[in-house]
Amino acid sequence: MSKIRGILDQNAFNMDSIDQADARIGALVRKRLETVGPTSMLFYEEPLHIVRGEGVWLFDDQGRRYLDVYNNVPSIGHCHPKVVQAVAEQMGTLNVHTRYLHEGIHTYSERLLATLPAPLNRLVMMCTGSESNDMALRLARRWTGRQGIIVTEAAYHGNTSAVTEVSPSSYKQGMPPDFVHIIPISQMPAQADPAAWFADQVRTGVEQLNALGHGCAALLVDSIFSSDGVYADPAAFLKPAVEWLQAEGMLFIADEVQPGFGRTGSGMWGFERHQVTPDVVTMGKPMGNGFPMAGLVAREELLAALNSDVGYFNTFGGSTVAVAAGTAVLNVLEEEQLMANAASQGEYLKQQLTGLKSSYDEVADVRGAGLFIGLDLCDPTQAGAPDPVRTTAVINELKRNGVLIGAAGKSGSTLKIRPPLCFGRAEADLFLERLQQSIKATAG
Amino acid sequence: MSKIRGILDQNAFNMDSIDQADARIGALVRKRLETVGPTSMLFYEEPLHIVRGEGVWLFDDQGRRYLDVYNNVPSIGHCHPKVVQAVAEQMGTLNVHTRYLHEGIHTYSERLLATLPAPLNRLVMMCTGSESNDMALRLARRWTGRQGIIVTEAAYHGNTSAVTEVSPSSYKQGMPPDFVHIIPISQMPAQADPAAWFADQVRTGVEQLNALGHGCAALLVDSIFSSDGVYADPAAFLKPAVEWLQAEGMLFIADEVQPGFGRTGSGMWGFERHQVTPDVVTMGKPMGNGFPMAGLVAREELLAALNSDVGYFNTFGGSTVAVAAGTAVLNVLEEEQLMANAASQGEYLKQQLTGLKSSYDEVADVRGAGLFIGLDLCDPTQAGAPDPVRTTAVINELKRNGVLIGAAGKSGSTLKIRPPLCFGRAEADLFLERLQQSIKATAG
């Protein structure tokens, strides 16, 4: 089993090495295997037993603290008291589904819709980004009458049957189905004209899907290309492709599950940097800061078309408590000006990380927007080839140095930097210091 | 739009009648349409604006209280303080995913697995019953290498693309796909040999799926047939069909999203009444008493097979907070002996409801187990034909009389009785009294 590893397993604990683990950790891992089993994956060479979280910090069972540069779900900070309070109060007052009237859902929806371009005028509330992308695929296929979907090579869009098909990073064998066309975004030329290259890739994809008889329903991308290893620039590189697709009657689905809610610093949604208007926007992870909730925004006519075929109801989606959590998150984003913080701290961090390229031959590239940054590690002795082994070593060294981080990208050699948005200058400097220590410790 | 109605819309507010609604309600409905839109459905001829919940009671914005005979998510009672406290405490301490070690998930999993037959030895935690059934379909198809699924005629198993295909009650047009075989459970003979009839239906389904070249992967049923209108008896009527299927290498998936967690009174899981051991058990709704969580239990080898093809991770599934909510629910179920209460109150209620058949020609049949009971309403002037119009009238009359209830069944003429499990004798009597008033008020 340990030999079959998808991209997402890059930083996985190897269950075969359980006997080498600390006794206390080993016992917990054994219990995990005996109860949760095969689909469960643990991080790190030696898994981490976390017991407490606060702001940008996580604490293990030995009282050791870790700077969290990984978790983008608790986007306004671990255990933010305003979300905890809002959820506790609403759970103690009323927790019901959307088939009764309740003002909260309308107020929340209006507020969220106001952050999106006008044609996107309806919000469907769900529980997970997977559910949201699952519906997005259905909306696109129903609307266009076509089956094909274009995605990027290491994309992750969720875990349902339909969404796994369009999530190459989840494949271990036997995928993709031939109605999924894959764009090798890691080959996008940085210097030439990325927008023209991307548009060309999309056109080629549509031609191939047409030739196979599937046609193309939609281009589905995470607007910061998180799992692909973070491709943010140049801004607007999606524009020609999306405008051509839309003119031809196909849809553009912006998966904002990771970049959304201010993380990119320049707007609530990652697609804004690309000067496009999606047909469908999906969102999730940070929406409730850890309270399970997600959403899909689309034009009313797309939803009405699907609704004429099948009913849709989501038991927990848009519950009074989900709405309370989501509202608290929007409040905190505004009150603490976290989008501005993501912009300024992200800019500083990206500048400093880019500066490391001149000091460390192992640092090949730095890309990102706001507090979503990818840093490629390479092997200088192998003509700068991507270096997933070193990346795993750096991740584990950083953990020993009290910093939590993960990997992304087709080859698993991109450090994925996406801390809670309340990340400050002191934390950025601490991270930069520990990162350099870890690169040095694992070099050569 | 109002003309296209699935079974689930039986008790839906007709958006076309918005102008007849009370001004206050009308304004809220308009706001709903402008923000949430086409996939949103509201209950009742005039929607209800609920603002508070406690135990078996819900309260509207005018301070009026309603006995809740409908909601099976807050199964241990609306806003149960022990769940609220557990969630608030854990949210304030740590809310992270399953990729770090945390003892709670193992303890919870062991406890839950102990309620299931031994071959079912692994728990995957998710957010919704839909996600759980979606994975169940994949497990069955991966394990058998076959595509076909057998379900019942008005089944509801969730809302993802894959699960909607096997949910006839969601269809409005164009379904089912030919790899879905449908059993007309409403035609199951009550007096003859229902078990033989059901087994025969399954064998016929397998033959037809084989003839179409799909083969049959699994029989998927809600073990109390909730959406079909509640088919509980005779106990063990599933046994011959399931044993034959399993002997032939096909799987039995027990959807316990509605009957699970003690509702049927005679065990934690509805399938226990049928003396069968499922290959996969899915669960959801009451698992967190309203905190969004769900689970799938299966034999390890089924999960390992899927895991060799694709990775699976669920961001919110099995989070520290979900585990806290689920643990509190299990504690309360035990402390308040709610399963025993479901058995005794359910038995009383079923007896009394059955007694109504002799007084009211409109009451055609009563079926159920524990606190999950279906009552068929018919038109005595039409040879006892199912009467969905009367059913809708009774539901709305009950609402005016302070009782919340819904409909189920292929023809939408079954009252679906499934109150929170803390439902007491006084509430049962109140319900019986109001039900009779409502039948009288709508008769003739």
TrEMBL record, chains A, B:
GO terms for molecular function: pyridoxal phosphate binding; transaminase activity. The keyword Transferase applies. Keywords: Aminotransferase, Pyridoxal phosphate, Transferase. It comes from the Bacteria. Pfam families: Aminotran_3. Its cofactor is pyridoxal 5'-phosphate. Belongs to the class-III pyridoxal-phosphate-dependent aminotransferase family. This is 4-aminobutyrate aminotransferase. It comes from Marinobacterium stanieri.
